[in-house]
Automatic annotation (TrEMBL):
Pfam families: Cupin_2. It comes from Plantactinospora sonchi. Residues 35-101 form the Cupin type-2 domain. InterPro entries: Cupin_2, RmlC-like_jellyroll, RmlC_Cupin_sf. This is Cupin domain-containing protein.
């Protein structure tokens, strides 16, 4: 067992950065991290090679995918399949997302 301290807790982005991403746990089958976007911020992520689950801890925003858009807030759980374009827009309150990747983030990306 392992308790993951700080997962899903708001952290302001470092000075000069748009967002804050911290990976808290990584094993071959999955990884867990926290992604924070400040109110009014821009989500600049690209599609991932792994399936992804977001759990909104705090804040409000709209998620946009090719299938449509939906407002999300505390308690929302969002599944994004590998390779799907997605972005959080209209971030009206500091957004904190607990993120679970399966398998671990970047593990299926082509090796350079």
């Amino acid at each position: 067992m392992r308790i993951i301290d700080g997962a899903g807790v708001w952290t302001p982005p470092p000075t000069g950065e748009a967002n804050d991403w911290v990976e808290h746990l990584r094993v071959p089958a999955l990884s867990v991290g926290t992604y924070c976007i400040p109110a009014g911020g821009v989500d600049n992520q690209s599609p991932h090679t792994e399936d992804e689950i977001y759990v909104v801890s705090t804040g409000r925003a709209t998620i946009v995918t090719p299938d449509g858009r939906a407002e999300v807030g505390p308690g929302s759980v969002i599944f994004v399949p590998a390779g799907e374009e997605h972005r959080f827009v209209e971030v009206t309150e500091d957004l904190t997302l607990l993120v679970v990747f399966g398998p671990a983030y970047g593990s299926l990306a082509p090796q350079r």
